């Protein structure tokens, strides 16, 4: 009896990437001071006016935070654009023309200062290809009790419609929780739904988020 030849095809995977920002300690204090200054000048809690009802007990800037001319802001933008282009190149190198030059551009960016009881409902980010969250100050967020974690939802809509031993590889939760760790950046594709679960703590939870597009030359 001849054993059939079987080819495995890993279709429709969802890559997520985590990196420690090398200059976090150098940038942190100046960025936090700048964010709190901007927060004090906000006209309303959610200055972006985007999905206001999906956000509770947090401050959100307008969507141009990384366009600022503060040296630490400019350096952060440079670093995250380099990080995103490295990631985009890794997953797309076989699809791009040979010898092409790729560039990542932050097109939207904002901060969140989340206070006790704050959260952000499930959502995704349109009009971009890659998104990121930089944990500037995670506060008292912890994975153990799911306090202030970012939750990413399985994009395979019907993956849980039936379960038996043959579907064990799919996982049984339908979501993946990421523990905020100071100085880390999470990069993910824009279609991936995610949320910030309710945060409880006396210290603020502060993140900087951004959306990127990729250009080829």
Automatic annotation (TrEMBL):
Pfam families: 2OG-FeII_Oxy_5. It comes from Marinomonas piezotolerans. This is 2OG-Fe(II) oxygenase. NCBIfam families: TIGR02466 family protein. Gene3D superfamilies: q2cbj1_9rhob like domain (2.60.120.620). InterPro entries: CHP02466.
């Amino acid at each position: 009896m001849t054993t059939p030849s079987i080819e495995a095809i890993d279709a429709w995977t969802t890559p997520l990437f985590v990196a420690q920002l090398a200059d976090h300690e150098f940038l942190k204090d100046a960025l936090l001071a700048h964010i709190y200054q901007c927060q004090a000048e906000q006209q309303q809690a959610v200055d972006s006016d985007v999905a206001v009802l999906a956000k509770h007990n947090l401050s959100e800037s307008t969507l141009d935070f990384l366009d600022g001319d503060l040296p630490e802001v400019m350096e952060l933008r440079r670093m995250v654009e380099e990080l995103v282009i490295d990631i985009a190149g890794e997953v797309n190198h076989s699809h791009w023309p040979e010898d092409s030059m790729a560039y990542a551009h932050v097109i939207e960016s904002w901060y969140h200062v989340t206070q006790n009881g704050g959260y952000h409902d499930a959502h995704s980010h349109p009009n971009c290809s890659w998104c990121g969250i930089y944990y500037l100050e995670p506060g008292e967020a912890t994975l153990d009790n799911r306090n202030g974690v970012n939750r990413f939802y399985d994009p395979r809509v019907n993956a849980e419609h039936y379960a038996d031993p043959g579907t064990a590889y799919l996982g049984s939760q339908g979501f993946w929780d990421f523990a905020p760790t100071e100085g880390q950046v999470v990069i993910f594709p824009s279609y991936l739904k995610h949320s910030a679960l309710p945060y409880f703590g006396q210290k603020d939870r502060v993140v900087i988020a951004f959306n990127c597009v990729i250009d080829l030359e």
